[in-house]
Design brief:
Number of domains: 1
GO molecular function: hydrolase activity
Order of helices and strands: EEEHEEEHEHEEHEEEH
CATH superfamily: Alpha/Beta hydrolase fold, catalytic domain
CATH architecture: 3-Layer(aba) Sandwich
Keywords: Carbohydrate metabolism, Hydrolase, Polysaccharide degradation, Secreted, Signal, Xylan degradation
Protein name: Alpha/beta hydrolase-fold protein
Shape: globular
Strand order of the largest sheet: 1-2-4-3-7-8-9-12-11-10
Number of helices: 5
Strand content: 15-25%
Radius of gyration: 17 Å
Distance between the termini: 5 Å
Pfam families: Esterase
Helix content: 10-25%
Number of strands: 12
InterPro entries: AB_hydrolase_fold (IPR029058), Esterase-like (IPR000801), FaeB/C/D (IPR043595)
CATH topology: Rossmann fold
Length: 262
């Protein structure tokens, strides 16, 4: 296990009220922060920052991501809220933002610094999660903040990357090849980019969770593996054909993947 990188909040009492916003360039941005009931200020916690998609709120994805109850290590989970565009859709960037300088990279920075001051975090165990548009944003963030983020997990996301990444990032990419909203070609392009970012060969081997057809790039014990999971969940529990969904069991698989990273 790597040496813990304790944040400034270690050893100090937590705030009387859990933060519900952070300041970004003078603007208050909403965030839901889930702190474990057994939180202790002397025990470094991992931080998971989870990003919602274009049509769901942070409260909605908190319910269906189902991350918190599957945490295998002490963890705080934060769900930031996006801003709206002129058409009322959720967006994580402004029109014309360069791919390496998306507006809400600063939102991630603010969430991390706010919670690192308020709570005891292990800054070596900061993770990002996203679905759909939120997955695309998390994918881009993992390049721009590669020196800060330990691991990435995204479902049905693409990415617009440019320039050099900040450092290697372990990744779990889940994508249905029949996805009609984000073509699998986008996910394959991202996989190639992550293999280059992490300096991994192109050979792979089957890995857990087999339920999602996952294959691991990088030897067993690799510090920054890439898990490619071309899941086959085409229909929702109600029977609707929707290969862009967040399948049941993905939240548990993601938290298990993060826990396995040394």
């Amino acid at each position: 296990m790597a040496t813990q990188q304790k944040s400034r909040g270690c050893g100090t009492p937590p705030p009387a009220a859990v933060p519900d916003h952070v300041a970004v360039n003078g603007t208050a941005r909403g965030v839901i922060v889930a702190v474990p009931a057994d939180y202790r200020p002397d025990r470094p916690h991992s931080l998971v920052v989870a990003f919602h998609g274009r049509t769901n709120s942070n409260a909605e994805v908190r319910r269906y991501f189902d991350l918190e109850r599957h945490a295998e290590e002490p963890a705080i989970v934060a769900y930031p809220a996006s801003l709206k565009d002129a058409r009322g859709r959720n967006v994580w960037s402004d029109p014309g933002d360069p791919p390496d300088r998306l507006r809400d990279f600063r939102l991630f920075d603010a969430v991390l610094e706010t919670l690192a001051d308020a709570y005891c975090l292990d800054r070596g165990r900061v993770f990002v999660v996203g679905h759909s548009l939120g997955g695309s944003f998390a994918n881009s963030l993992a390049c721009a903040r590669g020196g800060v983020i330990r691991g990435l997990a995204s479902v049905g996301g693409g990415a617009a990357r440019a320039g050099e990444c900040g450092g290697p990032v372990a990744a779990m990419l889940l994508h249905n090849p029949r996805d009609e909203q984000v073509p699998v070609s986008e996910a394959l392009r991202l996989r190639r980019a992550l293999l280059a970012q992490d300096g991994l060969p192109t050979g792979s081997a089957p890995d857990e969770p087999h339920r999602f057809n996952c294959r691991r790039y990088g030897a067993d014990g690799e510090a920054n593996p890439v898990l490619w999971c071309p899941l086959a969940d085409d229909r929702t529990r109600s029977g609707r054909f929707y290969p862009h969904q967040w399948p049941q069991g993905v939240g548990e698989a993601i938290m298990d993947f993060f826990a396995r990273l040394g």
